[in-house]
Amino acid sequence: MDFETKSMRRNRATRTATNYFVSGLCIFATILVILPLLAILFYLIYKGASSLNLAFFTHVPAPVGETGGGMANSIVGSGIILFLASLMGIPIGIAAGVYLAEFGRGKTLANAVRFTADVLNGVPSIVMGISIYSLIVVQQKHFSALAGGVALAVMMVPTITRTTEEMLATVPHAIREAALGLGVPKWRTAISISLRTASPGIITGCMLAFARVAGETAPLLFTAFGNQFWSFNLSQPIAALPLQIYVYAISPFDEWHRLAWAGSLVLIVLIMVSVTLVRIFANRGALKGGS
Amino acid sequence: MGVGILVEDLNAWYGTTHTLQDINLHIPANHATALIGPSGCGKSTFVRCLNRMHETNPIARATGVVKMGDIDIYNDASPVEIRRRVGMVFQRPNPFPTMSIYDNVVSGLKLNGFRNRRILDETVERSLKQAALWEEVKDDLKKKSGASLSGGQQQRMCIARALAVDPEVLLMDEPASALDPVSTSKIEDLIFQLKSQYTIVIVTHNMQQAARVAENTGFFLNGKMVEFDSTHKIFTNPRDKRTEDYITGRFG
Question: Domain limits of chain B?
Fold first, then answer.
């Protein structure tokens, strides 16, 4: 601009430099965040991809001393345990979050629930495994897929509850008033308006909780226990990918080490695929211009 | 058709703040009634007492009698029933962001379990025509989100949404204060047309607006109703000195 004075020009140069510097810091921080993920992924591909073949996805583990075999039963077993965990953990977590955000404002019970959720979130996963072991496995006198599912569900609940509460808190009060003003009962407003408006964030929270427990080993050690064979019986011990990886990784055999790498690669890819699928599915039917 | 509203000794509190003090008022059926007064004078609280929205705030309470036709709204009916008969339009347009235009308009019916497609279609068309929005949105009803419309269109959609449940009374809490002059005049035209079928109560900061749309005007100050009379009388020959000071711009 022609009316720019000398000091203004100098200021502008400083501002431009500051702008580049801060933008650069942001980009650097972004790279720092992405780098570990990419490094893990590439290292898993480097170590594990060569052991992946059809047998890996169709066979159960080979007996000691024999080569070959796969983790088909572990993949399916993880799927079953995670399905059970989601079936219990997601509804309970969301319901508790709705209570905290929509009905429990300022109530003693709500504060207690919130505090419990935060404490539960910090409980080490091995402790969760032992608790479920004494609560379910000891009572039933055998390890089971169901016990594994319960252990993972309990770990999912606090994350989902707190995310749901926070996401509901971002829904503008004006929208709730609009529904109440139309003569919509409060419970219906909470479900059809608040929860629906907050659903993208809540789905993300559920996926985070899912991805976190999908790789958990410790809570499954004393609950699902692991199994070298096929099992679809919920009251029997069941195989799971993290357990199988753990067993193979601490074994003395190179062949098993390679299978452990392959299992890790499959685990991380399955988690990424399922999270992406849920996101695509959840975004379908979104309206033009909606927020 | 609209019904008249009779208010007797209405008092309202937020916590320990006595927001409304001994309000007595008769709002005639099928007319527009304007409520004016400076910010914080209690006029918004007053309209929120007329559809029992006031009590949705946990620290709020109200005493007194509000009769809508023959019904004592605080004793003869639940808040939900009252709100179905008394529509409300808020200061800022508040469309449901996840819903299409169509679903926004019939949300009051759908959320109360009403599912008949033919009647829903008819209601959408009738309400949007009443709100003078039909021509602008009829091709995008199910394609576009209600939140994608302009501010003025959103507010007319919110009016259509309130009309879709077929209320007898329409409460409007500064319905045009967040809108530009063109949108404001559209809303005023609407009020003019709608008041033959509905009892309309409109809160406004804009005294010209009150003069243009309302037959009767009430002046609120510090939680009390200072004066209630025909709009013409209030603006040309008010009885109370405070009303005169306010409308001539000496305070507020």
Answer: 5-94+167-247
| A180 belongs to a structural domain | yes
Q: How confident is the model at residue A92 (pLDDT cuts 50, 70, 90)?
A: very high
CATH number at A249 reads 1.10.3720.10
Q: Is residue A287 part of a domain?
A: no
Residue range of the domain that includes A174: 74-282
Please state, in angstroms and rounded to a whole number, the distance separating the CA atoms of residues B41 and B71. Answer: 27
The Cα–Cα gap between A267 and A77 comes to 12
Chain A, 170 to 189: residues with Cβ < 8 Å from chain B are: 172, 174-175, 177-185, 188-189
Report residue B98: phi and psi, to 5°. -90, -5
* Class at the top of the CATH hierarchy for domain B5-94+167-247: alpha beta
Structural domains of chain A, count: 1
Which among B53, B147, B162 is the nearest to A291, CB-wise? B147
| A183:B108 CB<8 A | yes
Question: Whole-prediction pTM value?
Answer: 0.85
Evaluate whether residue A41 is within a structural domain.
Answer: no
Three-class SS state of B72: strand
Flag whether the ipTM exceeds 0.85.
Answer: yes
Render pLDDT for B135-145 as a digit per residue (tens, 0 to 9): 999 998 888 99
Cβ(B10)–Cβ(B46) below 8 Å? yes
